[in-house]
Write a structure and sequence with these properties.
Subcellular location (chain A): Cell membrane
Strand content of chain A: under 5%
Pfam families (chain A): MrpF_PhaF (PF04066)
Number of domains of chain A: 1
Structural class of chain A: mainly alpha
Number of strands of chain B: 2
Largest sheet of chain B: 2 strands, antiparallel
Number of helices of chain B: 5
Order of helices and strands of chain B: HHHHEEH
InterPro entries (chain A): MrpF/PhaF-like
Radius of gyration of chain B: 19 Å
Distance between the termini of chain B: 15 Å
Helix content of chain A: over 70%
Protein name (chain A): Na(+)/H(+) antiporter subunit F1
Strand content of chain B: 5-15%
Number of helices of chain A: 3
Distance between the termini of chain A: 61 Å
Oligomer: heterodimer
Organism (chain A): Metabacillus fastidiosus
Radius of gyration of chain A: 17 Å
Chain lengths: ~90, ~140
């Protein structure tokens, strides 16, 4: 029973990943694409969590935190590039 | 860029960074020390530590981070390589082949019975080399105009 529920939720997660990929490809502006990438990372985190429950393994729990941190840093870097034009500043302007 | 003269304020991002950097560094140390029995190890631990430093570089600028952490990352990579060679050479003193590792159960005062392996020293070398190389690449790219 729980296996059916988990596979169903993986199925719906695939739908939501496809929707974010649609926004990633079609998105008219760069912030749309960055937000789609961020949402994609969160969907992948939940996919990994459900998959590790399905496999009855705790070996993937590190991956969950890892994807969270990397997705955060990547989104921040993209946001700074869109806002300022540089990712890492040499020194503050003021 | 035409937005250059707008005054920018990163208050929320810098406050979040001050907390999150410590969490990421703790997580990287956990990954580093748990590499013997569970997923993790020197490589991914070093990458996580350097990603914490990258987060600091994003929140502040290159100059401030150099003031906070006055390390020469090339020296860190070099000392990592030195430790790796020394752990290999250390096995020659015990009349065993190069890079032979061993472990021993030791009663530590707070942790109880712990197995101390010499492979951790080699992992430390990998950790230092990964941090040094990654941060050298990122700082060199960030400093060029």
């Amino acid at each position: 029973m729980i296996k059916v529920i988990l596979i169903c939720s993986l199925f719906f997660l695939t739908f939501s990943i496809l929707a974010t990929i649609y926004r990633l490809v079609k998105g008219p502006s760069a912030p749309d694409r960055v937000q789609a990438l961020d949402a994609l990372g969160i969907n992948i985190i939940s996919g990994v969590a459900i998959f590790s429950v399905l496999l009855r393994s705790i070996g993937f729990f590190e991956v969950i935190l890892l994807i969270g941190i990397l997705s955060f840093i990547g989104t921040i870097a993209f946001a700074r590039f869109i806002e300022r034009g540089v990712v890492i500043e040499r020194k503050h302007s003021e | 860029m035409n937005k250059k003269n707008i005054k920018v304020n990163d208050l929320i991002f810098q406050t979040v960074t001050k907390i999150v950097v410590f969490i990421i560094i703790l997580y990287s140390l956990h990954l580093f020390f748990s590499g013997h029995y569970t997923p993790g190890g020197g490589f991914v631990g070093g990458l996580m530590t350097s990603s914490a430093l990258v987060l600091l570089l994003l929140a502040y600028d290159v100059k401030t981070v150099k003031n906070i952490l006055p390390f020469n990352y090339i020296n860190i990579a070099a000392s990592g390589l030195l430790i790796a060679v020394l752990t290999g050479l250390g096995s020659l003193f015990f009349k065993v082949p190069f890079l032979t590792h061993s472990f021993k159960y030791v009663d530590l005062p707070l942790l109880g019975e712990t197995s101390l392996a010499t492979a951790v020293l080699f992992d430390l070398a990998v950790y230092l080399v990964v941090i040094g190389v990654t941060m050298t690449i990122i700082q060199t790219i960030g400093e060029t105009e």
